[in-house]
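User: quick one, sequence for these tokens?
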């Protein structure tokens, strides 16, 4: 019997690896579009109803309500039952890939510098927004302690490994990172023409 390593070690058809996906500007455009799609799905879910569900302002039918809404309504708001924890961190992974691979593309494609700066600025704004939503959902308000040292959520600035165990940061640290991202996003998007009303822009920041 003979070995056939080269034959077995192939990239599955129709699939790609992350560096390949970000090897050109077209891949970056697709990645940013994917981030916006996931953000749209997040905000078009029952996310807007969280305050009403949490304070029992609605009367849910146990037969018709989605499991995520019931989890909040029944005070069983955990990382899996309500869905938001995994959903938002999945978005953050995609956002962080955009931010991580943008500098290399910027040096390789100087003709697309403005577009790439806009995409990174949008990604930074969306990363700040994701951390803000997570902290509102899974942490106490900022002024719960005098120095906001109470637990917030894990701050994710790079795509983690599948087995990473990221520690929760204090609410103060989460908000500090939110402001850092917003400041950089504002610098990148300042004076730039918005790509449209569905995209992050200087006014949104």
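Assistant:
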């Amino acid at each position: 019997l003979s070995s056939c390593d080269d034959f077995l070690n192939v990239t599955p058809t129709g699939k790609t690896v992350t560096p390949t996906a970000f090897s050109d500007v077209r891949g970056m455009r697709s990645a940013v579009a994917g981030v916006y799609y996931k953000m749209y799905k997040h905000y078009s879910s029952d996310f807007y109803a969280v305050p009403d569900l949490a304070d029992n302002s609605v009367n849910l039918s146990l037969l018709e309500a989605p499991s995520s809404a019931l989890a909040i309504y029944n005070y069983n708001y955990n990382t899996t039952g309500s869905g938001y924890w995994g959903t938002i961190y999945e978005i953050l992974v995609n956002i962080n890939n955009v931010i991580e691979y943008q500098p290399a593309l910027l040096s390789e494609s100087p003709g697309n510098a403005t577009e790439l700066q806009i995409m990174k600025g949008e990604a930074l704004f969306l990363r700040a927004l994701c951390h803000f939503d997570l902290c509102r959902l899974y942490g106490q308000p900022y002024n719960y302690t005098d120095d906001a040292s109470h637990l917030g959520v894990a701050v994710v600035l790079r795509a983690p490994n599948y087995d990473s165990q990221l520690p929760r940061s204090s609410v103060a640290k989460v908000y500090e990172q939110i402001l850092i991202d917003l400041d950089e996003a504002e610098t990148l998007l300042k004076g730039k023409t918005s790509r449209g009303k569905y995209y992050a822009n200087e006014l949104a920041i």
